[in-house]
Amino acid sequence: MRINIAIDGPSGSGKSSISKILSNKLGYTHLDTGSMYRAVAFACLKNNIDVKNEADIVNFIKNIKISFNDKNEILVDNENVSSLIRTNEISMLASDISAFAKVRELLVEMQKNIASKKGYILDGRDIGTVVLKDAEVKIFLTANSEVRAYRRMLQNKELGIESDFEKIKKDIEARDYQDINRKASPLKKADDAILIDASYMTIDEVVNSIIDVIEMRIKND
Ligand code: DC
Fold first, then answer.
1. Which helix (DSSP H) or strand (DSSP E) does residue 185 occupy?
2. Atom of ligand 1 lying closest to residue 38 CA
3. Does the CB atom of residue 10 touch ligand 1 within 6 A?
4. Which among 153, 114, 137 is positioned nearest to 8, based on CA atoms?
5. Whole-model pTM over 0.90
6. 115-149: pLDDT as tens digits
7. 25: CA distance to ligand 1 center in Å?
């Protein structure tokens, strides 16, 4: 039986890495919904779209094509933007534009269509509460902001980027605040989601605990 899996949580909680590992282990497809908000933010910036104007962004989205290549990298109008959307500027801008209800509507519709075939792992902020309300497995993955900032700092170091711990922590907390407090589909644990606090867990431990949940769910059906 192929099911859909929803993984929500704040930025830097490891949703994307964990979803990628799970999708390889299970032979499922991973849809990183945050990359869609990031790609739209990036494309708006590149095309001088007023990112404070909801109607302009909505019009713009209707005229571009967002797709994924066979390596699961995101494309805007067939241009691979996957390596250009991970900057601090795009992180914050993606969070800004994701607060617009009509922007969300368009992206949520695309996400629902993609996942309708089942066998998907979607990670984001509103997957369990809005996009896949009927997902068979829902996980809310979190970690405290110190741990998330520390992990981000290590990732930056590996990329040769020097970064300031306090600044990263402040940016993470600012984005959490914005994502949790927006009116349209705020970041929130679905009532039927399982909470995993990964602050002091290894990636393997998190992956294995989610696999346990999935197996239990499939066995019980
Ligand atoms: O997961 P991420 O950090 O790549 O997401 C970037 C921003 O996009 C995040 O700050 C909030 C927004 N987002 C959202 O509102 N809903 C989603 N399903 C995924 C991301």
1. none
2. 6
3. no
4. 137
5. yes
6. 999 999 999 999 999 999 999 999 999 999 999 99
7. 24
